[in-house]
Design a protein that fits this description.
globular; 267 residues; mainly alpha; M48 family metallopeptidase; protease; Mito/Outer_Membr_Metalloprot; 8 helices
Length: 267
């Protein structure tokens, strides 16, 4: 009976989800929620962020960010080309995000590390890369699947060994899933967003070499970190090497974009 219950749960999860291929060719499990639902959740989260945080920056800064977002998003596939909403938040932490439904949030603190339009484009293109790579869909699908299987596993142990065993299994299982399943996937997503973001910025006419400078600035501001295997981001030095190598490969793309008239002048 226990094996049947687990097999039924796994079959239900597999049926509800689908296999997709990311822009870099990576196999993904997606589909726990529809794109329309993802867009709705993105819009709700964006509205909450604007309601909870003071929007900042002067008119020049807002126009600057808007210009870079527009230049990057014009290079997206047609299904992602709808108008993207942008908010600039009065927050000194150097952070940014993008959400399904075409939402971009930028903290004013990002200007401490993104010191020119090309570096800002690297930030924005990276965050948009998460959206168009369906990373939010992938994470929700994986997390829902993990929570479902953990709940079943703890229920089985509880019926066999009591409530204490069920609680312990759920706690330990959650820690194992976080360390061995969810976080490694997040690192893969970060690397993928780096790849797609650097491609997008080059096609938009921004210098892909400036992505290297951006992350060097990030490291300078961020200081020492914990071990790479406990982080959702790739090791900083490995990341810089990869960005440098791609920048060399993308230089002809950047040059062609400029020759074709894609030469942003955002300020």
């Amino acid at each position: 009976m226990k094996q049947l219950l687990l097999a039924t749960a796994i079959a239900t999860l597999v049926t509800a989800c689908a296999t997709a291929t990311s822009p870099t060719g990576r196999t993904q499990r997606v589909g726990a929620v529809s794109q329309a639902e993802l867009n709705r959740l993105g819009a709700e989260a964006f509205a909450q962020a604007k309601a909870s945080n003071r929007q900042g920056g002067d008119a020049r800064q807002n126009a600057y960010v808007r210009c870079v977002v527009d230049a990057v998003t014009r290079q997206l596939p047609s299904e992602w080309q709808a108008q993207w909403d942008v908010a600039l938040f009065a927050d000194e932490s150097p952070n940014a995000f993008a959400l399904p439904g075409g939402k971009v949030g930028i903290n004013t603190g990002i200007f401490k590390v993104a010191r020119n339009q090309d570096q800002l484009a690297a930030v924005i293109a990276h965050e948009i890369g998460h959206v168009v790579s369906r990373h939010h869909d992938e994470r929700i699908t994986r997390q829902l699947g993990t929570q479902t299987l953990l709940g079943i596993g703890s229920a089985i142990l509880g019926s066999q060994y009591g409530e204490g065993a069920a609680q312990a299994a759920n706690q330990l299982g959650g820690a194992a899933a976080q360390g061995l399943f969810l976080l490694p996937n997040n690192r893969a997503q970060e690397s993928e967003a780096d790849i797609l973001g650097q491609q997008l910025m080059a096609r938009a006419g921004f210098d892909p070499r400036q992505a290297v400078n951006l992350w060097e600035n990030m490291i300078d501001v961020g200081g020492a970190r914990g071990p790479a295997f406990l982080s959702t981001h790739p090791d900083p030095r490995e990341r810089l090497d990869e960005l440098r190598n791609r920048a060399t490969e993308l230089t002809p793309v950047h040059q062609q974009a400029r020759a074709s008239g894609r030469a942003p002048n955002c300020g």
